[in-house]
Amino acid sequence: MKLSGGVEWAIHCCVVLSKMDGPVPAGKLAGLHDVSSSYLAKQMQALSRGGLVRSLQGHAGGYVLTRPADEISILDVVFAVEGKQPLFVCTEIRQRGPLGTPPEECLAPCPIAKAMMTAEAAWRDSLSTISIGDLARQVSSTSGPEAFQSIQEWFSGAL
Amino acid sequence: MKLSGGVEWAIHCCVVLSKMDGPVPAGKLAGLHDVSSSYLAKQMQALSRGGLVRSLQGHAGGYVLTRPADEISILDVVFAVEGKQPLFVCTEIRQRGPLGTPPEECLAPCPIAKAMMTAEAAWRDSLSTISIGDLARQVSSTSGPEAFQSIQEWFSGAL
DNA sequence: GGAGGGGTACTCGGATAAGAGCTGTCCGAGTATCAATGG
DNA sequence: CCATTGATACTCGGACAGCTCTTATCCGAGTACCCCTCC
Question: Which of A7, A15, A143, B21 could form a disulfide with A147 if both were Cys (CB 3.0 to 4.6 A apart)?
Fold first, then answer.
């Protein structure tokens, strides 16, 4: 029970994209972070399907954020990469077995499922309060404001 | 990225155990819920390793809760079955690549990891506020107080 | 009648296969750029 | 000198294997009960 590693990559890429002017191809994002180019491309495709980024094909193509960074929450990224399926899925155990409760009596949700859903909602709420813009500002204050400028220059100079 | 299905089984078993007098073998718990006996045994072993239940071997053996139901939170069960490893693991991407931040400058935790950890803490906090005893009381009020008595009788009569 | 010993049946515990999902890779479809050519 | 046209190189997108983790199963180790035997 572990979150996909691609989530971390995707968030980092979104933060970087939020500070770049033009489109950035997946290959350069992979080179910057020293990760598999092909696999990161897969994550970017997920972001594209989720509507978080827009893909530009052709010579000077790449990915661009579709919305302002402050309007993209971490939850959006997690949903795009991992899917919206909840962590806990109730299989209605109470209805099974020789003493199972008949379905017509199961009006209220199973208390166990309810508790798990409440906790999951707390998790999602916490993720939805933090935006890509917030993260970018925090990175600027910790790693220095010139960090993103160096990245942009590296993208231009390219390897 | 889905929680192990065994978690649901384990919680249900803990709730049932909290209302039983004597030890209950894993086979009967499996029969009650109509799930794989062998696989549920594995989950019970995890609970035993986690110190939540005590195993009694021999003819009239089985599993018994080690603590009062009100002192066992759902989080304890999740930790016992899934392990205490966090959902999100930071691989320190910021240190990798040509523009990676040197380790000696990474004093503060990565903002991205920090945000994920905060959300995870909210999830765990929510889980830790609900005990097995709470769930048992909710089941009694929704499914009727006689439900657990029927189960106890079914365990005695056995199949 | 009571105590001791052996057998039996039941329990847990860990070691062992099958399946699904994540990780990683490849090649084809599409498009903007650039250069060459003709007017 | 400018517009058109073709080639080119670069991009994304989805289809294809390898591997780890979850799911499912089995058999051996250990223990309490029960019955039989002996005193």
Answer: A143
Residue with tokens 């790693």: A143
What is the spatial distance between Cα A50 and Cα A83, in angstroms, rounded to a whole number? 9
Find the angle CA(A82)-CA(A72)-CA(B87) to the nearest 5 degrees. 35
pLDDT of B75-120, one tens digit each? 999 999 999 999 999 999 999 999 988 888 888 999 999 999 999 9
Tell me which residue has tokens 């993208």.
Answer: A155
Strand positions, DSSP E, chain A: 53-56, 62-65
pLDDT of B16 over the 90 cut: yes
Burial B120-137 (b: 16+ CB within 10 A, else e): bebbbebbeebbbbbbbb
d(CA B60, CA B62): 7
Annotate A39-55 with DSSP letters as a single string.
HHHHHHHHHHHTTSEEE
Would the Cβ of B50 be found within 7 angstroms of any atom in strand C? no
| Residues 75-104 of chain A in contact with strand C via CB under 7 angstroms | 82
Q: Are A29 and A14 in contact (CB under 8 A)?
A: no
CA A65 to C1' D14, in angstroms, rounded, equals 22
Mean pLDDT of chain A: 94
User: According to the model, what pLDDT value does residue B73 have?
Assistant: 98
A6 beta carbon to strand C: under 7 Å? yes
Q: Nearest-CA neighbor of B13 among B52, B56, B71, B70?
A: B52
